[in-house]
Design a protein that fits this description.
3 domains; Tetrahydropterin Synthase, Chain A; single chain
């Protein structure tokens, strides 16, 4: 009798031990039975499920990140560029991540690479001097482009229960074969922008000077004198060299 009790007690102990498992913080178990999904256990600590609820897939819900490979792709202007990004993500639905694809990690990586290429071809690397700056560029609008990249990746991986926390471009450059030429283009555009600002500022100064003279008694200039004054001031203010004064020892005219 005692022997049978021992055997029964041992069977009960083995039955209990067979159903025990441990969930770490931010870890889940996807419970199945005979190939059918039963439930997802998200509670941490020592847990138990009937032994016939097997296999139990362990899925981490902790934050993960990876750096994509540096891809060479043509931007919206047709220029070859190099781009890569860092993607931060986590599993939001362990059951979907387990059963929707064979390998959800590889799926996230592949879809992220594809989204980066798609986004890079949607915008120019940078705006040229005569292009409109109403839209975005990859270099000048990093925050907006990164937000759109995160949305693009999220739409691609939502079906597998993955949440994209952040996606940010960490490498952006012209391809080696055109880097030198594009650097010269950027330098030329910077010079043109600087000249445009100088001319605009000079015009404002000249306009202000003429207005002040018109409001002052004794300085009523005729159109020819005004034109000469405007010409001289614009040359002095817009020139990149120091002006050489000419001293007039005659009359005021």
């Amino acid at each position: 009798m005692i022997f049978f009790q021992l055997i029964a007690g041992l069977i009960v102990i083995l039955f209990i031990l067979a159903g025990l498992y441990i969930n770490q913080p931010q870890q889940s178990r996807v419970i199945t039975m005979l190939g059918a999904y039963k439930y997802t256990d998200d509670k941490e600590g020592l847990r138990w499920a009937p032994p016939w609820y097997y296999p139990r897939f362990k899925v981490s819900k902790r934050l993960r990140n990876f750096e994509s490979q540096t891809s060479k792709v043509n931007d919206a202007s047709g220029n070859p560029i190099e781009i890569s990004a860092i993607v931060v993500w986590r599993v939001a639905d362990p059951a979907k991540a387990t059963f929707s694809v064979d390998d959800f990690k590889a799926f996230v990586h592949t879809q992220s690479e594809s989204a980066i290429r798609t986004l890079a071809s949607r915008y120019p690397y940078d705006f040229s001097h005569n292009e409109s700056k109403d839209s975005h560029s990859l270099r000048a609008n990093g925050d907006e482009v990164s937000q759109e990249l995160a949305t693009e990746i999220s739409d691609r991986v939502a079906e597998v229960g993955v949440e994209i926390i952040e996606a940010r471009i960490n490498h952006l450059a012209y391809a080696v074969e055109i880097a030198s030429a594009m650097l010269k283009r950027q330098q030329a555009a910077a010079v043109l922008d600087a000249r445009e600002l100088i001319v605009k500022g000079s015009f404002d100064i000249v306009t202000s000077a003429l207005t002040a003279l018109a409001e002052t008694d004794g300085f009523d200039l005729d159109p020819e004198r005004k034109a000469a004054m405007v010409s001289n001031l614009m040359v002095v203010l817009s020139s990149g060299a120091e002006p050489t004064p000419v001293i007039n020892t005659g009359s005021v005219y």
